[in-house]
Write a structure and sequence with these properties.
The complex is a heterodimer. By secondary structure, chain A is an all-beta fold. Chain A is built from no helices and eleven strands. By secondary structure, chain B is mainly beta. Helices cover 0% and strands 55% of the residues of chain B. In chain B, strand 4 and strand 5 form a beta hairpin. Classes of the chains: A mainly beta, B mainly beta. Chains A and B meet through strand 5, strand 9 and strand 10 of A and strand 5 and strand 10 of B.
């Protein structure tokens, strides 16, 4: 299996610009998670979906952040407008609660975002 | 409120030594306790996990010890190797009442020196 695929791997953008991060979960997984990792705050859950439906977005820091999952194989996390404090590594992860690997959450390699 | 507290923040161990990382949690409703390993530039990957009805789980050199009454669990790495140098995260999962959320500790950076 190809694993969770994220793009872009690295992005440098100017403050005020729109940023779109993309994720392809593992085929067959019905849960998708977006996490943010910073030195100060560690790994924070931003939002998660079940069967393409957002379940909990209480971790989304503010209205500048939005996430969508139009189908089972694609999700986006959008920041508009971006600010320097949004600089972080953003991870997408997916999981299936069924089967032998139930409760294992698989992470992508992350999108490294720098806002200057 | 921090749902899981992890210590120490960093750890230096000699090759062949035992590395011990501890975590404490508050909510007794958590039902799955994994440890994740993260190498620089990579995403976290599941290392080993335990359910609350078991007090210990061992996989190779890695052991989780779980103390339900104290609400604590720990990761022991026996015969630590330089290749184990990474950041380790404990996590707690709540999967009840329509929820399915994995919350991480702040991480422990382990350095194994030859």
């Amino acid at each position: 299996d190809a694993g969770v695929i994220q793009s872009p791997r690295h992005e440098v953008t100017e403050m005020g610009q729109e940023v779109t991060l993309r994720c392809k979960p593992i085929s067959g997984h019905d849960y998708l998670f977006w996490y943010r990792q910073t030195m100060m705050r560690g790994l924070e859950l931003l939002i998660y979906f079940n069967n393409n439906v957002p379940i909990d977005d209480s971790g989304m820091p503010e209205d500048r952040f939005s996430a969508k999952m139009p189908n089972a194989s694609f999700s986006t996390l959008k920041i508009q407008p971006s600010e320097p404090r949004d600089s972080a590594v953003y991870f997408c992860a997916s999981s299936s609660r069924d089967g032998a690997s139930g409760n294992t959450i698989y992470f992508g390699e992350g999108s490294w975002l720098t806002v200057v | 409120q921090q749902q899981v507290k992890q210590s120490p923040q960093s750890l230096i161990v000699q090759k062949g030594g035992i590395s011990i990382i501890n975590c404490a949690y508050e909510n007794t409703a958590f039902d799955y306790f994994p440890w994740y390993q993260q190498f620089p530039g990579k995403g976290p990957a599941l290392l080993i996990a335990i359910r609350p009805d078991v007090s210990e789980k061992k996989e190779g050199r890695f052991t989780i010890s779980f103390n339900k009454s104290a609400k604590q669990f720990s990761l022991h790495i026996m015969d630590s190797q330089p290749g184990d140098s990474a950041t380790y995260f404990c996590a707690v999962l709540y999967s009840g009442a329509g929820s399915y959320q994995l919350t991480f500790g702040k991480g422990t950076k382990l350095s194994v020196i030859p």
